[in-house]
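Checklist before submission:
- one chain only
- standard amino acids only
- sequence pasted in full

Submission:
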Amino acid sequence: MKLRPVLLVILILSGFYYLTTHVGSSSAPWVHRVVVPATAQPATTSVTGPMNTFQLTEAAAAPAYDTEEQQNIAVYKKALPSVVNITSTAVGFDFFYGAVPQQGQGSGFILDPQGHILTNNHVIDNAQRVEVTLYDKKKYKATVVGVDRGHDLALLQINNANNLQPATLSESNSLTVGQRVYAIGNPFGLSGTMTRGIISAIRSIRGPNNNPIEDAIQTDAAVNPGNSGGPLLNSRGEVIGITTLIANNGADQSSGIGFAIPVNTAKAVIADFAKYGRVRRPSLDIASLAIGPDIAEQIGLAADYGVLIQRVLPGGAAEKAGLRGGTQRAGYLGNIPVMTGGDLIIAMDGQDITNLQDLAAAMNAHQTGDEVTLTVFRGRRKMEVKVKLSDATEKQERVS
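Returned file contents:
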């Protein structure tokens, strides 16, 4: 009888030991467990050969794309069928004056089902033959329909191409620094390459041929030789610019600073091609200088902003309207002489003109032959002058 309590204690301890070591690890309700789905468990496979046996751990299934990846993929799938590769062939000469074919590569994008394609002028400049390769690898001989060297744009056309998918053109007036952008093109001949970045700035620059590009889109999306003429896209896969140039400091590759022509400029050029068969850029026919508070104070202007007319082109729009250029040299801004005595433009059609970019944007909203009203200061006198815009391409000397 004295052994019963001892046996009972041993039995209870044995039962507790069994439960904690055998049952509790898998089903005890007081034990916290992290359950990993069987489908997420990696699998181990063996690869055996003459050298050795390798144990490889493989994912059970491909992971789903996250939201950002889905957007990247959607932009690429939408835009890629519209992007083309362009090969231009020109003839150069070797040391013995023998003809040597020289090839250049660039990009472009389809505008309509009729086969019109937009690219940079410098991609096809001086080419004797231009060939376009679509995303499905089909090749077509292209005809140069029109060029605009001033904006570094060119319009091509291919014939007998079926099921062309035109790009969707957005607008570029409301672009914002920090906005996500994508570039698709043919860098170093690698067709169908997409890179991603943001809009780093909106600024006016000089193009490949020293041509001014107003409101150029600066981006850190990687662009390289061969991207020229390709589309710069927003997050919906719509064209907001035409990739044109990189700041490379002598290294012929991406530096994280690329530039694109705004799509609104391209739209204006395309409209001129359609209406006139050539580009008719509106012009005031002036040479001008942007004015800020410091310069305005130094030379005693009536406003601390605007565009000061340095000179007017003889027989041009400004001279015909009675606008005046500078009459006296007041000094230099860098290596640029500053002339005083000319009219100071502060508005066009009621829209403030604070710098050259404002003037360019206002001009891009008009066509050759339009009449605009300029608000100017002539000395201290504020006045309004009506000007009929002329055609810059008809002038031997383009000053503004």
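Reviewer check: The helical segments are 3-27, 67-79, 121-124, 263-276, 293-299, 317-321, 356-364.
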